[in-house]
Every structure is written in structure tokens, then in C-alpha cells.
Amino acid sequence: MDEVISRIVAYLEAHSPISQSFLRDLDTLLDFTLKTNDTIDIDNFYNELSSRNRSLTSLTNAISTAMDSGISSSTSVLASKVYLSLLLSPNSPVFTLFTPMAFLSLLRVIRFAVKKPSSARNEGSASRSLGGKKRGKRKNGGNQARVENRDFAENGGEETGYDVKDLFLLMEKLEMVMGLVHLDRFPDCLKALVQTMCEIPMTAVDSWDSGSFRRLSEQCSRILSEALKAEHGDSGDTAAEVLKALRPLILLSKSQVRSFGLGFVVNRMVEMGEHSDEIKKAVANMPKFLLQRAPEKAEPRASAVESIMEIVKALDSGHQVEFADYVLKMSRGKTQFRVLAVDIIPVLLVSLKGASEFDVVEDSWGLKLLKALIQRCSDSAAVVRARALTNLAQVVVSLSGNDGSRAMLKEVIRHGGEGMSKILKLRSVDEKAAVRKAALLLISKSLSLLGDELDEELLKTVGIACSDPLVSIRKVAISALSEAFRKYSTRLVTKEWMHSVTRLIGDNETSIQEECESLFSELVLDRVSRACDKKGKNVSFNVEAESLYTEGALGLLKELCDGEVLPWVKKICSSLGKKKKLQRQTAISLQNIIRASEAQWVHNSMPMGNWIAPQGAWFLLSEVSAFVPKAVDWEFLHHHWQLLDNNKAANEFQSPIRSGFMDEEMVDMESHSITWMGDRVFLLQTISNVSMDLPPEPAADLAQNFLKRLEGFNMHPTEVDAHIKALRTLCRRKALNQEEADTLVMRWVDQLKHKASLVLESYMSQISIPNKESSFLTPPPTSVRRKGTKTAESKSLAQAIVAIYTIGSLVIVCPSASLKDLVPTIHTIITSGSSDPKSSKLPTPAVSVKQLAPSLYVHAWLAMGKICLADGKLAKRYIPLFVQELEKSDSATVRNNIVVMMADFCVRYTAMVDCYMSKITKCLRDPCEVVRRQTFILLGRLLQRDYVKWRGLLFLRFLLCLVDDSDKIRQLADFLFGNILKAKAPLLAYNSFVESIFVLNDCNAHTGRSNSNSSRNENHIFTIRGNAEHSRSQRMHIYATLLKQMAPEHLLATFAKVCAEILAAASDGMLSLEDTTGQSVIQDAFLVLSGKEIRIQASHGASSEAAEMEEEGGDGGGASTSALKGRAITQAVRKGLIQNAIPIFIELKRLLESKNSPLIGHLMDCLRILLKDYKNEIDDMLVADRQLQKELIYDMQRYESMKAKSTAADAFATLRRSEAYHSPKGVAMERNPNTIRSKLPRNLQSNSKVASAVADAAAAATARSVLREVNTGASTPLGSINVPKLKSRLGVASHGGEKPAEVIESLRRRQCFDSDDEK
Questions:
Q1: d(CA 1254, CA 1233)
Q2: What is the pTM of this model?
Q3: Where would I find the Condensin complex subunit 1 C-terminal domain in this sequence (predicted)?
Q4: From 19, 48, 211, 553, which residue has the greatest number of CB atoms within 10 Å?
């Protein structure tokens, strides 16, 4: 070693550049000393340096220079190793050798070595970096690969690759040095060490293999643990520094780096915190710090929440409660913090012990978190509302397993917060799609939680959502309602599912139609198929046990018969049948259900005349049998046809025309008869469906039977159609070919037509002859008739009604049939009582048939309409007569039927009906709700199919349906304008908006001409004129609906059009300011321009849209595009105000001032609202009118002052209503401005104007309190001042409660604390 020491000392004396040979010699000396623990050689080295006047500082500087030289990585690593070995050597003067500069150089070497693994000679594990493969050479040296960097240094071209083992050895020695050198005196070194150790894992994760990375991370953890010891300084400060450096690692997405950071905090620091309160406190504050630094994007935020919760779980219960309180405060902070709070609350509730134990302490912090989450469901920010609802759904699912938590959740959902049902109902119709979808998710989970105790309001809310404009939300609603129906087949759920889901078979989206079919097949048809076994014995059937109604298929079958559900079920069965998805077992099971019902009835020895099959069974069988006819047994049909036919007399419908009275027994009989007739109709339809498979002889017998029954004209009209259709089908079965079938059909059609004509002529003769005989008698005879005559007339009328209905049905079945002989008779009926020359040849009653037989009159119009549909020439003659009757008829039934016929005429004879469209649209204002709804639906369909165009006044007349008295019509109108027209005619609202303002106010100024009296009377019913609050609110609702359909660019254009065509017209004199309608138009224009619907909030809109896109998984590009669009819109709005609106407002204001018009106030309010976002630019915008500028600024300031005073007054009133006000502390609370300010919303507490108003209110309260004390004689600070006392009229000072009433009343009337300019 003496030779090595000599070379080292000689090299130091030569002051030559540092070389690897020098460092190797020094490393050899130090390694030998450390291994042998022999201090002789190192002591000789120190003595040799001292003898040659070389200090240890020169040695340290030389090594530090080598570390900083950057000649090569191997040299730097070797120098660092030598420096650490020198510090660890026995009897080493550590305080002399250790310098901050050298230590910082050491840390730089470590960071560089980790960052550049390609320069390492990896003998233990290969590096994953590709850079070394490109720049290095591969040498064959055994079975191990060496990756080297062949850059050469200036002093001899030594290779620069370093051994990875040297780096690990360097880290180990650094850890040992930490035990010798206390860094409390070198805070910069400690900070640099912490940052370096935290950066190393992030640097090495992409370029080191997994084994080396784990070893490197473990070494960093040990060094950081060493740095947290008390000898290196205050543990709390060091822990805070470590946690701050680990924050970027912890907030990363799932990776090895994140695992390292979390592992060190959760395992090492929490363990060390058990022995150090400073470290424990720092770790407890770490989750709060991470919340403040959490990212805003959805995925990184979720990862951050997961990391935070890992740390929180490791804390003790006290710190967990403290963190929960902090989260509660965050839930009332800024938007980004509220989003974080609602994301972390469900994890807290589910993960932490005690958070979900609601049943132990009612006011537990878990319950507080749950209530805070419910409150955020009504947050002002859409992204917060959506996240809160989604997370609340997760909480419901997670906590429903515990009985105590389940009970508390049920209570909270029913009555908690602001009323959970009410919140869900509001959120399910939220303007933001993400919120509606989240609300539906929560409702579906809540329904599963409630079980059999389902809330009707929640079910109806889901049902309404099935008609949402967005396809995705409709699918979520269908899934939620179907899941509830699948689990709980109660009557309530069944009814809501039937009414909400089945109608979606008519949806425009194909996928929803397919989903509807699939669910109906699974939840209805499959259940019906399983209702009976093969022998026809229904296990759950018991007609006497109503409790079994919800357990089997009976509830489903009964709901199928609902009038609103039945047409959709027909469409579903038809679609499934065409796709061959209807099963034979369904038809077989339905037959078994009917057989079981009959067998149960016979078993109970009840009369078969009163038996009816389960409701809906025959209907569903009639629909299914059309596609699986071979599954229906002919013997089954024949038996039940005979059964129902034999019981006809007992169950025949008795009309009030015949009976003349109706008691309770009659009502029950009528209800039973209606059900019986419905079953007969569905049975006939079933027979028609399977007729092609019937034997010829039974088919012929049935046809003869049907014809015989039709010729009797004694059936209910509902049965007539079924018999005619079944008879036509049987004729086709009996015939050998189509020609023979048509001949057979025509033969019995003519036969029925002839007999129906005889019945009608007979009845008309009966009511005509008596009137002619009595017309010459004076005085006319009384109306007393024999009972037999009255009964005969009643029977004749009933036959005439069925006969005329049969004629209409025959026309539908056989349009080619000639009805020329019947037209005059029908014409006589519909024109009876009028002087029509066409009916002079026929016996005409002196009294109108409309008065004698209203039912016959109604059916006559129906029959004539059907005949006109088959005969175009006849339709051309009679359509004007239909329109005339539509206008003058006082029967709602006739008007409704004519509207239906006119809709059919519009499809068949479009050109003929088009000119009468204005007459038809008058029915939109019909006094009968059914007529209005029918007209709206039919015209809406015609408009969708382009048989009618949206031109003229048609669109404007449809607008009044938005404010109809009927809720159903308003809902239909909202759907038409909000969904169908928005997609079919997106510019319609924009093009007709200004005209709608004039029309609704009954103002003709925009047309430039006055309407005739008839036209004015016709249009008057389509106006909402007047300044009454109700009329104005209806018009504003219509305007708001139209504005919601417009795109931002159309809103800008509409703003300009309203200014140019209304306000500019008024300032130019084209719109009269003295006319009441003109004033209403201008006032509506001001309200529209100042309304929120026409204003485009560019900045807020862009951010919210970006937030929603981000929640739905959108990228940042969409958000940036929205921001650019928002800025462009803002500039366009400002430009439109300056160039178009402001000049018109200035000119109009001058005109209104000259006429002293009351519209000035509305104009100023409108301007104030328009310019409130441009307060700093008012001077530039109103440069043309300085007076208006001053007035507007004054009005805005006054408005804000009055609003602040009103807010303070409300807070003061809230304080006085509170229970605390009535306590002894009430007076002190009243005088304290801070107490009043705490009652204000959070966003108003920092408002200076509001604070000033609060202070004024507190001062007023103080003054009142002092005056009250003075008047009661109490000692006050004013007692030492000579204050004049109140005296009575007799000169006696009043004391206590003996004040005269006049004095008290005068004090009560005094106004206080309001200046004159504020009144």
C-alpha cells in the first residue's frame, strides 16, 4: 500500500487533471481499509499528506472536481464512491471532509447515472433502454452482455461505461453516511437529498427493468427513512418536505412510481408516525394537500381519489374524522373542490369503519357525509350534480347489504335531505343529459333498495324518462324500469312498465324498438308461457284470490287490455310475428289459462252465463294466433264460440235507449256485457287467423252463422267489424281461387247492403209519418205514447244504428261495392231539418234526426265519411259539407269524428282538403279537450308525413298548444316542438319568431293591412292579447320554447331581428305607440331581449360543455374548440350590441320620452340587463348619448343597492324567525352584523354592497333596541344625557306600560332608517 499512497500524494502535488487511475488507487486504499478495518494504511496516508503540507480539503476538492468534471459517467460514479468511502473510513475527520458543495455534486452524479442507464455496464441485469444498443458495441465476454458507451475523454480515451453494481453500492454507502453526518446544519443538502430520492423512481421507471427498479426504489425508501430521523432536523419539516416531493408520484395514474410513493407514505411514514407526533401530523395533512392539488380531468382525478383514500385508510380514527370534516367543507367550496368532494365521499362511506354505521349514532359523520352528497345532487354546476347522483347510486349499492345501513338509506331516500324523491324527479328532467342519466341510474338502484316498498313517484319519474329526447337516456330508463319489473311484479310496477316501455315500439331508434321487443318477449310472453303446465292446470290461478293477482300472468294480461297499451301491444306482436319470434307455447298456455278459468268456474257451481275469461287472454291469443295458427285447437275455438253464442241473450248489451233507466244492477250488467263483447270480438279475430287451417264444412257453417247474425242488426257496433272481417276470411277459405272469393264476398255484401237499406228506410218512415200527420193539428198532440210503441221505436232505432254502422264497415271491406242507393238515405239523415232540395224526394222528418236520434246522426256522418274515402267524386261534393258541420256542430262527438275523417281525406285527397286547413286548425281551440288533443295529434302526424306544410298561420296556431289548459296537450306540444320539429325543421322557430310576437298580441302592424271582420274573429281565438300577468306569462313561455330550439347563431340573428323589426319599427313610427296591441308587442320585445333564453353565456357555456365532454370521456380538443367558439360568440354579441341594438335603443328612448310613454321603464330595465356584463365598456357603447349613459349607470347602481338591501332584509327576517332570536341572546344576535351575514349564501358573504346593507340593518336593530330600552325606563348609556321625555296631554310623564295609545300609534307610524332617495 505504500506504493499506492505515494502515487496518490504525488498526483495531488502535481496538480494534474483528475484521472481514473488516481481514483482507482484511492479506491483501492479505502476499500482495503474498510474491509480489514486496519487504520495503519489510512493513517499513513493522512500523515504523508500532512508531512507534505497537503490538507484534507485539497483532497476533497480534487474528488469534488472529478464528480463535477463530467468527463465520463464511470469517472463521476467512481469519484462519488471514493468520496463516500473516505467519509466512512476509520478515524476519518468527517466534519473536515464533508462539504455541502461536494454533497450536492454527489447527488447530481446519482441523478445523472439513473437518467443515463445506457452508459452503464450492466452485469447483473440488462437495461431496457434502446439508446445504448444504437450507440454501443456488443462484446462477447462469457454469457453476460455489456453495454458500453464508446465516447472517449481528452486524457486518454478511457471508456465511460459504469457498472450498475457501483451505483447500488454508491446508494448503500450514502445511507451509511447519513448515520455519520447529521444534515440538520445543512438544510439545503437535506432538501436536495429528499428531492433526489423522490425523483429517482420517476426517472428510472421508463428505462430500468422491473428487478433493478424495485431494488433502486427500496434503496431510495431507506435513505428517505434515514432522512426523517430527528438528528437530521425537525422531523415535521422534513416529513412535509418528503410528502411535498412525493406528491407528483402519488397523483400519477397506476404505475410502479405511484406504488413507490404510496407505499413509502402508508408503510414507512405511518409506522414512523407512531413514534413521532410531527411525522404523524404531516401524514394526516397529506390527504388534504393532495385534494388541493388533484387534477381536474376525470381519469387522473379518480386515480388521485384512490391514492388519497389509501393514505386515509392508514390514519387513525381521529384523523379520519378530521379529514371527513374537511371534505364536508370542500363540498361547499369552488366547483373543482365540490367535484372532488362528491367523488371522495362515497369512498369514505364504503371504505372506512364507522362511516356506514348510521344506526349507532344518528348524527354520525357518515350520515353527515351522506346528506352532503344528497345536497350536491342539487348543485348549481351540472358536472357536480351528475357526479353526486352517480356516486350516490354507488353508495346505495355498496351499503344496502348491511341491515342498519339499508334501513337508514331507505329513510334518507324517502324523506332525507330536501326530499330525495323530489330531487330525483327534478334531476330526471334536468337540462343536462349527463345529470338525467345519473339520476336514472340512482333511481334504478333506489328501486332495488326499496324492494316491495316502491315509491310511485320514482316509478313515474322513470316512466317519463322513457320518452327523453336522447337515445342513451331512454335506454337507461328502459333498463331501470325493466329491472324493477323483473324483480318486483307488483301491480304498480306492471302498470308503469306497460304504459312506458311498450309505446317505445314506435320509437325512431331501431335499437330501442328491438330492445322493446326483446323485453316484451322476456317479461310478458315468457311469463305467460310458463303460467300453465301442459295439462292446462294453472298452479297460481285462483279467481277468488285477488292477492295472487301479482304473482302470475293474470296481472300482465289485465294490463294488456288498457286502452293506451293495447295498440302498442298489437304492434309488438306483429313485429315479433314477422320476425318469427312468437312461440307456439304462448298460444298453448293462453288456451290453458282460459280452460283453467272455465274449469274453476264450473267447479264452484256458478252459472256459465256469467262466466268471462281472464281479461286480456282472448286479446293476446288473437294477436299471437295470426302467426302460429296451428297452435290453436279448433275444438277449443268451436266450444267457446258456442258457449259465447248461446249466452248472447243473457249477456247482450242493453242500451239506455231501450231500458230508459239504469240502476246499479244495470251498470254491473253493462260492464259485464262490454267485457263479454270484447271477448267475442277477439275470439272472432282468432277464428279469422286460423280459418285457413279449418276443415271446409265447419268453415261453411261458421260463415253462414256469421252472415245470419249480421243480418239481424242486433249486435253492438264493436262486434260488427269482427264479424265482417271473419266472414271475408272464411269466404276466402271456402273459395277455390281469388276470383271466386271476390264473388262470394260481393254477394253477401250486396245482400247485407240491401237489408241495411230497408232497415234505414223503415226507421226514417216511422219518424217522418207521425210528424206529417200531426203537423196539421191545432193544437199539436201531446207526446204521450203507448209503451209498446215506444219500445218498438227504440228497437227500430237500435237496428238503424247497427245497420248504418254495418254500411260503413262494408265499404272498408269491399270499396268496389256500389252504394248509390244508400247515399240519398244517409244524406237525408245528416241534412234532416234543413231545406236541402236533394232530400225532397225522400221522407224527411220535420224534426232533425240530430235531436231525435243523436247516435244515428253521429254514425251517419261516419258512414258518409267512409263512403267518400272510397268514392273520390262523392268526396268532392261532400267535403264542403263536412267542413260546414265541423264549424257549426255543437256535438263534440261529431266534431271529433269529422276531424278524424278530414285527416283521412287529407291523405287521400290532399289538394281538396288543403284549402280548408285553416278551418280544421280552429279545432285546436275547441272547448272540448278530446277534440283539441285529437286535432293536435292528427295534424302533427300529417305534418311529419308532409301532407301538410308548415306555412302561413298553421305554425303560429300550433304555438298556443304549448299553453293549453290540458296537461296532456302541453306535453304533446313540448315533445313536438322540442324533438320532432327541432330535427325536421330546425329553422322554423327562427323564421317565425318575430311574426309570433305580433300574432300572439293580435297586432297587424307587421302585415301592413287590417283583416276583415270574419278573419279577425277567426284569428282572435289564436291570440293571447292583453297585459294581464297570466296572458303575459303564457306568451313568454311560448317565446322561451321557441328560443330553446335555436342554435347560438340563430339566437344572435333573432336578437337583431327583434331590434330591427319591432323596436326600429316603433322608433320609425310604423308601430303605433298609442295602440294597446302595439305597446304589448314592444313590451314583449323588451322582455325577450332581456330574457336569459336569448342571451348566450359564452364563457360559462363553453366551460360546462367541456366539463360534460370530459365526464363522458371526451378529449381536450373538444374543450378547446368550445372555448374558441365561446370567444367568437362573445365578440359577436358585443358587436351586435354596439352596431345594432344600442343606436335603436337610444332613438327609441328619445321617442318614448317625448310621448311620456310608460314603456321607458321597460326599456331601461332591458338595457340594464343587456349591459350588466359590459360595465367597463358602457362609456364606449353609449358615446352617442351621454345622458342615457349616466341614467343607465345610476339605474344599475341603484338596482344593485336595492338588491343588496333586499338580501340583507331577508337574512334579518330569517334571523328573527329562528328559535335563537327568541332566546336571551336574540338581541345580541340582532345587533351583530357577522351573525346576519352568516345567514347569507356563501357567494354573497364577500359582496361589499351586501355587507354594507347588513351593517345598516344591524345599526337599525341596535337603534331600535336602545329606543325600546329608553321607553321602558331601563338604564342605558343614554341615561346620563339630558333626554326629553315623552309626556301625555295632561303633562304627566308616561311610565312603563301606561303610555297613551295616540303616542304609541304615532311612534308606530314613523319611518326610520330609509333615506329619501331610496324610497
A1: 6
A2: 0.70
A3: 893-1068
A4: 553
